[in-house]
Amino acid sequence: MPFTRGPGAATPFRPRADDREATLLRLEALAHLMDSAFLIPGINRRVGMDAVVGLVPIIGDVAGMLIASYVVNEARRLGAPRWLVARMMANVVIDGALGVVPLAGDLFDAVFKANRRNVALLRRHLEKTGGLRPGEIDGTAVRIDG
């Protein structure tokens, strides 16, 4: 990883801006797979591998928590502040603790989507602090007839 000076420059502990974008895209793909990869026909509801794997008692819930913890660790590596990492860990703990409850926990896993929440929190933070270019442009569109 090259170490250059200036905006978006890499340091030994913080990746460059383009590396942050690539990491965030990878985390968004993982969150999609874990939380909303499959459409349940008839009820038109999306679930992911977290809900499917969570059907296996305890082992599935632990596996889901480990993957969700990876997302939080990547956020920490990208320079997320402690309060944001703590909030993301709270989402993981809530998802894991309630996911252990048979049947009701599986339904909760299908609805709560901790990974997507955490990646959205990270993206919002990186866009707000200038660590990432905004995915959406804020403002009002004005039509110019010419």
Automatic annotation (TrEMBL):
State the organism named in the record. Methylobacterium gossipiicola
Q: Which UniProt keywords apply?
A: Membrane, Transmembrane, Transmembrane helix
Q: Where are the transmembrane segments?
A: 51-72
Provide the protein name: DUF4112 domain-containing protein
* InterPro entries in the cross-refs: DUF4112
One Pfam family in the UniProt entry:
DUF4112
